[in-house]
Design brief:
- By secondary structure, the protein is mainly β.
- Helices cover 0% and strands 22% of the residues.
- The two termini are 20 Å apart.
């Protein structure tokens, strides 16, 4: 597991916040093209809340 102390960008990132309640989002369950459920809070959020790593800039 990376500690982030060696300049690894994984150590600098934190989970995104839920746009509805502000809690950290562990994962999304996508149920349609415009609907997803954030976990563990359970809020309904847009599926594009989290972008794949390939879309993030360094």
């Amino acid at each position: 597991m990376c500690s982030g102390r060696d300049g690894d960008r994984d150590g600098d990132s934190s989970p995104p916040e839920c746009p509805r309640c502000g809690e950290p989002v562990g994962f999304l369950t996508v149920s349609g093209p415009m609907t997803a459920s954030a976990s563990p809070c359970g809020c309904t959020v847009p599926p594009n809340l989290v972008q794949p790593d390939s879309y993030r800039s360094n």
